[in-house]
Amino acid sequence: MKKHFAILSLLCWFTIGLFANNQSLAKEYFEQGNTFYTNGDYQSALQSYQSADSLGVISPELYYNLGNTYYKLQNYPLAIYYYKKALKYNPGDKSARQNLELARSKTIDKFEVLPQSLFTKMWNKLLLLTTAQNWTYIALGFLFLAFAGFVLYRFGQSVTVKRLYFILGISLFTLSLLAAFFGYENEKYFSQNKEAVVVAPTIDVYSEPAHKGSKLFTIHEGVEVTVQEELNGYVKIKLPNDKTGWIDKKYLMIV
Predict the structure, then answer these.
(1) Phi and psi for 202 in degrees, rounded to 5?
(2) pLDDT tens string 149-203
């Protein structure tokens, strides 16, 4: 038993050490990339940012800078991809959202987005206000405060004070459940609505996978789609105007 515990401890420390080392290396590459970018050497900046990204460290700031670098290099599809990735982990980044619109303006295909109801707009805005992870942190914070409220209720000296702390505890517990619900719905939203960006210059979209059906339409690089299904290396995509069809998965980068 002690031997197993020792091995498990060593594995844990090794994993923690490896993660910390990756974080340190990623920061070094990131700062190096910033220097190249400031000096106008965008190709070298790209190489440094890619080295940081290859370490698997999640960083909205890195994705944002990658988006800016690809934009400077006039690779608008990948600029769109990284701006969207930055917004996935930091939905409130106004600069990333503005730059995303600039990159979108450089693409060939323009779509008329179908209008959403006011309720859907408000729901999505609230749901995507932050990430699922942050919703979880918020839920835990409210839960801790609710627990504190119930403790104060337990040791309250008067009926009025006890009632106040009880109502406070119930309210905070309700907010904790609500935040947990939003975290769950946020996670479900992204699992059911896998966003992707077309990175091939031109793609024909078909009614069935593996080019077996009829050709429906043609799209170009930079188009943002939602992946609905996947079958044998082919994916069913939905365009912003709700048109659907099948293409080879290799032509996409999933955010």
Answers:
(1) -145, 135
(2) 999 888 888 888 889 999 999 999 999 999 999 999 988 887 778 899 999 999 9
Phi-psi region of 80 (alpha: psi -120 to 50; beta: other; left: phi over 0): alpha
Instruction: Work out the number of other CB atoms within 10 angstroms of the CB of residue 231.
Output: 12
Contacts 24+ apart (CB under 8 A), 145-153: 145/172, 146/170, 146/172, 146/173, 146/175, 146/176
DSSP conformation letters of 209-221: GGG-S-EEEEEET
User: Which residues does residue 229 pair with via DSSP β-bridges, in sequence order?
Assistant: 236
Are the C-beta atoms of 103 and 76 separated by less than 8 Å?
yes
The residues that bridge with 247 in the sheet, in sequence order, are 235
Amino acid at 27: K
The backbone torsions φ and ψ at residue 236, rounded to the nearest 5 degrees and listed phi first, read -90, 125
d(CA 128, CA 176): 17
List beta partners, residue 196.
Answer: 225, 254
Q: Record the tokens describing residue 100, joined without a space.
A: 């995303």
Q: Does an H or E element contain 21, and which? A: helix 2-38
Q: Which amino acid is at 200?
A: A
